[in-house]
Every structure is written in C-alpha cells, then in structure tokens.
Amino acid sequence: MLSFTVFGQVEKHPRIYTNNESKEAFIKTLESVSWKKSLVEKKKKNLEKYLKYVEKDPNWLVSRLQMNWNTKHKKVFLKGGDFAYSKDAAPVATVRFAGSRDWATDYKRPKIENIEPYSDDKRGLFWEHKKRSKKEWIHPSKAGTGIEKLNEQIMSLVEDAAFLYWLTGDEKYAKFAAPVYSKYINGMYYREAPVDLEKSNQQYISGLATFEVIHEGIVVSLVTTYDFLYDYFKTNKTNLDTSVAVFQKWGDQIIKNGIPDNNWNLFQARFLTYIGLVLENNATYKNGKGSEYYLEHTFDTSTDRQLSIKESLLVYDHKNGIWPESPSYSVHVITTLLRIFTLLDHATNKDEFLNYPIVEKAALASFQYLFPNGYTIGFGDANHKILPPENFELLISNYQKYDKTTKETLISDILSKMISDDLYTRKADDFFQLFFYADILKSNKKQNLSSIKNLTSQTFYASNVSMFNQRMGDKENAVMVSTVGSFGNHAHANGLSIELFANNYALGPDMGKGSSYWHSDFKEFYSKFPAHNTVVVDGKSDYGAMRSYNPFRLDNAYPNSGEKPAFDKVTFSKVSFFEPATVSDQQRFTAIVKSNSAKSYIIDVFRSKKQQEGTQKHEYIYHNLGQSLDIYDDKEHPLKLSVTDDLSAEKGDLKGYDYFTDKLKTQSSKDITALFTLKSENKPDNLMKLWVKGAENQTIYSVKSPKSNAISKGTAPKEVLKKQLPTLILKREYASWKNPFALVFNPFIKGEENPIKNVSYASIEKYPNSQIINVLLNNNLTKDRIVLNASENDVTVEKSFYQKGLVSITRQLDEELDFLFLSGMYKYENFGWNIISSGNPFTFSIEKIKRGFRFQTDEPITINMPVLKSEKSATLKLYENGKIVASRKGTTNRNNANQLIFKIAKGYDKAEIIFDKK
C-alpha cells in the first residue's frame, strides 16, 4: 500500500514540515497571511529574554534541564506508577525520568527562570506547595508530571530557535539551541529504559522519559530541532550518530511498549512517524533501522504492544464512523490520524488519505457527538468542548492540495461556521499547523452547508460506545438527550445514564472525570454511579470503569438512527441493561415530545428490579445546573425537608455517596414537582421543572453534588462552573418495575413561554406494567396522553381503550385528535380508531391536515378509522419519492358502519386519507 522509501538516497533536511526549496514561498506567505506571521513573531518575541540570559551565561538554559547532573545515573527504577530511585553512573549527566504517572500533585512546577541551575540534590526537589505557598523538599514521585514537562518546555524553546535559524539564517538561534539539544541527546544516549521493581504492567507501558509511551511529546521537539539544525550540525562537523542512536532507541521503546487495544497505538504511531521521517533509509545504518523500518512499524507491521495503523483502524465502526471511546478521546484520535497522514503525505505526495477513508468519515461523524450549541457531550472521561478545528483544517489542506474543490468548500463552510459562531479563531499554535493549514478558506455563500443541523440526525445510535442521542427543535428551543451505557474505553460505571440539554445549556450534565485517574475522587465518585443521572440499586450498583463491557441493549427507538423522519414531533428510545453488582434488570424509556409550540418536553421512565425476590432499594439520581432545588407537593406548596445522614458509606452505600453534602429529605406518596433554578447575571432565571410521579413511601432527597468536570463555558454559565450541583434523589425500598420512576422534564425560561400547564400520572391495577402520563399543555386545550408498557407484548385495557404494544402518544386539541403516534405496536383502539398489525410490531403516526389526515407506517397494517355521517367516504393516497403511486376509496367496516377500513400492504413514509368532497 505504501512506499516507505520516501526520500531516495539524498540526505536533505529539513523535510518533516517543509524543505529548503519551499523556503522562499513560505517567507512570502508570512507577508500575506496574518495568522502565520503572528505565530512566527510570537516565537521570536518569546525567545528574546532567553536569548539575553544565554548571552550573559552560555550555560543558562542548559543548566535548567532536569538532569542527573551530579549522580549521572543511567539506571532508573520505578515502583509501579511512581519513580523510586536511579543509580549507576554514566560518563555524562543523564536525563532525569518523570516523577509519577499521576499528574495530580500538590506542588507547583517552577517557571524556567526560577529553576535552580544544575539542580541534583539527594533530598529531592525543592518545590512550592500549592496551598501552603511554601517551598518544601519532596521526593520526585510527589511532583506528578512536572519533571518531564519542564524538559518539554525547555526543548520547545530549543525547537523554536532551530526553526528561526532555518528561517532567518541568524546563527544566534543555532548557538542558543544546539548546546541544549546536544546535552539532552547525550544524556538520553546513556540513559536506560526504566525497570519496574513491582514487575507490574507499568514495565510494559513506560517510555524513555515518561511513564507512558503515549506521552513522549519531547520526541517531536527533538526531531524537529534535528531537522531544522541539520545543515548547521553538518557545517560544524557535529557527530550526529548519537542523535540517530537516541531516535532509534526511542522508536524501539515505543514499538516494544504500549497498550495494543485502545488509542495508544495511534498516539504512539505519531511519534514513530516523526522518527521514521527524520531518519535516512535503512541502508544508511549498520542495524538497518532507518526510515522504512519505523514507517513499516507505524503503518503495516504489528507487534505485541504496538499495532499498526492498518490494524488499529479496524476498531472503528465503519458503518457509523465512531471510535469506541468517550468523545474527548475519540475526536483526539481523529486529530492524531489526520496529523500522521498529513506528515506522510507531505513526504510521499501520493494522497495518502485515499488509503484510509474511515478517517474522513470519522471526522464528519464526530458532529453526532454535539449538543445543539456545538459542544460535545460528556459521557465517560470526557468534557464539553468544541470539535477540534484542526480536524477540518487538515481535511481542507488535503482537499486543496489535490483539487477536491467540492469537498474543500463543504468543510471550509463547516469551519467558517465555527468561526462565525465565535467557537474558533484561525491561528497556528505549533509548527505543524503553521506549515500544513491552508492559507485561506474557500466558502460557498450560496448554500448553508455547515450548520450542525445538516450534519446531525434526529437520532443517532453507536453500539460500539453504547450511545443513543435524540434531538428536537432549533436554536433557543433545541433539546437533546444522550443516553449511554458503558462500552469501550474511558467509560464510567454509570448504568443507564443520560445527559440533558435545554435552554441553551447542558442542564442535566454528566460529571466528567476526577482530578486524575489515580485520584480517590475519580475512583470513588466521578467514575461511579452516584456521579451520573441514573438509578442505583441497594446503594451498591457498580462495575469496572475505564475499560467497560456493560452496554445497554437498544430495544426500540424512533426514528431509526440517521434517518430523517416524516413525522418529527416525537423521538424516543427504550434501552435495557443488566446491573452486575446487584444482579438487577433495568430499563429506561426516554422521549422528547414537541409541544403545541416550538418548545419541547422530555419523558423519562426508569424501571429497575433485582432478579431475586426480597429486600431491595432503588435510587433515581438527577443532577442539574443551578444554585437551588425547591420541592413542592401536588398542590404546589413547598415541602418541608429535614437534615439527614442517609446516603453514606457508613449506612452501607457506595463510597461515592459520601461526596454528597447538604443532605435534606422528606417522604411522600403523592406526585410532586421539583424546580431547579439557574441564575445568571443579567439574564432571566433558567428553570428546569420536574413533574415526578408519586409512589408509596417514596423518599425525596435534595443534596449537593461535587462540581461537574464535564461542563464548560459553552455548556454552563460562569456562575456555576466549578460549583456544586443541586441534585434530586428519589428512593424506593421495593422494586420499581411495575411502578417505575416516571418524570416529565419541563425546561423553560422565567417570564417566557412554559409549554406545560400540568402533568398527572395514572396506572391500571389489572395491568401493572402500564404507565399513563397525562400532559396538559399551556393553552389549556391541548392534551397529550402517553401510555407506556414495559414491552411490545404488554397489554393495557381501560374502558374503550386497548393497546397491545409499547407506547402510544395521543394529542387532542379541544377534544379532537391532533396526532397519534404508536410504536412497538400490535393493536391499538381508541376514539373510534382501530389500527392492527399484519404480524410484526409497527411504528405509525397520523396527524390531522386539512380535509383529512397524513400518516406514516413502517409495516403492513390495517387502519379502521372513525367517520362522521357527513363524511361517509374518504380516499387513500399513497406516495413514494413524493409522488402518488396508488389511490383508492376506503370501504365501510361490516362490523361498524361508522368506520372506514384501509389495508396498507407495506411501509410508507407518506400517505394521506382525504375525506371526499360532498
């Protein structure tokens, strides 16, 4: 597939980002492209003070490197994820290894200017405590990732100087960079790979400078410095064998170590690509490890702990384009792949993107992660942020290079929309972007191709991350619910969890990840059930987070994932889940219903039961943005809550319950309402009202949860960032299956339209699996009646009403049918309508139009519809691709003269029943 002999036998540098032949053209772009010029000027200015330091003391920057200056230790020993000690002297000062795999630390990393020169003290590091603001001697393991970050900071200055030498020819930059580079390279040449004293998995993931081969970012700066200073080194007869040996050693460590079944392969591959591109051909070196060797291991050859890109890409769902990790990691994988192929294509000029079409597909599929305001959802170890603009910049660069004008315009429009929405400002943050972003964006002003609405679907299902997203409405009326299980990497133990977007914010957010993956707040709270909008059984629901194989089963949904439905007033999903810790069955039905205006409301019905009979407890947890939570009875009177010590590990619950504070409770068997209030400066109150179904001896809690680490300035106002979240908890001390948790989420802005006047709940004793929700909309004339069963096979019978099937939603306007929506249905009877399956459960919707009704069905059915004496005949019109394909009269039902019968032989996206004119 690839030709790895990309440079012939000519040793020409630089070549990773640019070459000498392109230098003149690049300099011209600096005159016309402001964002490129800005980065170059920024780097020049940033280097000025360091150049002055080095002019006074040539060893100033060298002495700030984190090295074993005195001990010159070459052997490094770890104790699991922490540095233990080093020993055995080398001929020169060696590079100090990182302090800890855990980045969470109580100590501040010093600025370069404040580093003690040639610091290498047996007492450890003399760093300032973040809270005590006092310097203390600490063991390196207490410094988190500070040691490696300092070296990366220093080497980034060296990299900048090397570039400026190439650009300007001014030797002051080369003289600044070369000694620091050489000192580090010589120190790493004698340094050995670390040894884990505990013989844990750490032994198989460590790099040469860091605890994880995926964090060896200093490789990029070293390789880039070598590339830009190559001619200088040659002119000054610098022996480059040491550099080559270090790059080979680093490449070998990356190939040898890693985690072969997640994103590590790709993050490692980026470093291997840099190493492969900077080295000469295999024949140049006695060990044969040159460009071809490392590029082959990057793209084609897999090892036990480093899979090739070709094999790694098989992990993608090639149908939906989703990578099996939480969103933040998934979109980062796309960026990494685009960077790798851009680098390779720069070397080969063979349009390498064509060999891997899944990368382009994934970049566009990532829009399905977005809330309506352009920020990603936050399940698992994710947070709310925009999609990386770099993903689209690099697609545009490829399209422009190979004259793919239509695609270039499309993606340029996407990026332009991000710019116009103030989500992105075009700029370069590093050399990669400086050389590979297109100078200008082409746009198509005649078509609006770039809105999120055109790049997302009303529902989207990704089984490989157990995610189902629903959307309704636009702009300030946009509502979204994301339902997730736990499948793939960087997942949490969250059961059946939801995130909810309304009123322009992620009002019902996920909590994100903790301080670090090794910190107690992550292990005990953020990655566990209590941090999520879910149901906990017996206070013990749990399973392994991070790498989790606990997906939900998608039982029913409307519309089908990715489809644009003809009937767009309802979306829903019903998902099932097995909770392993308590051996429990759970089921969640979540729907968005458009009201009689542009506003929508959300229905949430959660069933949960242990498989074994006996004592059990089920707790529904919901976190909402805001400063307060008020709870009212069914008469809208405030309920009196009392302080409680419930919800704690001491009472037998998960340790995560101990993170709840300000705990208050009350008890009620009646319906209640809960009102979350979010106050923002100079804005009306942002309200989320929950209409909660009553249940015998239901305990209601108001608590405060820790801050959400998922929310951002794009999904929450500044007033609640890093603040505790008010949280509602509903507790049942019995199975909540036949009498599930049932809520209607009613978001609105104070002083503006509230779509709901009232909500009431009902059930039928003879049919305990049936739940009835009655919603009175704000005009007092429109009524929605939702009848929900536990499965397609359940039956609900009440007077003249009959339903065998999952769900029906009936809207009446002033007692007349406005629309009827049925799904997972075998037979439905009500208001004179009788709709019957021909064998399979069907999804059907019908809504009133002038002189009749419009309907859709996905299966063959028989429709018996009521008619008035004044309208005894009607005509059925069937459409395909917008054109009438059949038309016929209805026949009178022989058993009911007030009904017309229409037999529908297959599914239709559009059909009409029009009453004949008199």
UniProtKB/TrEMBL annotation:
Under InterPro entries, the record lists: Chondroitin_lyas (IPR008929), Hepar_II_III_C (IPR012480), Ulvan_lyase_2nd (IPR058849)
The cellular location(s) given in this protein's UniProt record come to: Cell envelope
Q: What is its main location?
A: other
**UniProt cross-references to SUPFAM superfamilies, sorted A to Z:** Chondroitin AC/alginate lyase
Cite the Heparinase II/III-like C-terminal domain residue spans from the record. Answer: 478-558
Taken from the record, one Pfam family name reads Ulvan_lyase_2nd
Where would I find the Endo-acting ulvan lyase 2nd domain in this sequence?
A: 319-446
Q: What is this protein called?
A: Heparinase II/III-like protein
Species annotation: Polaribacter sejongensis
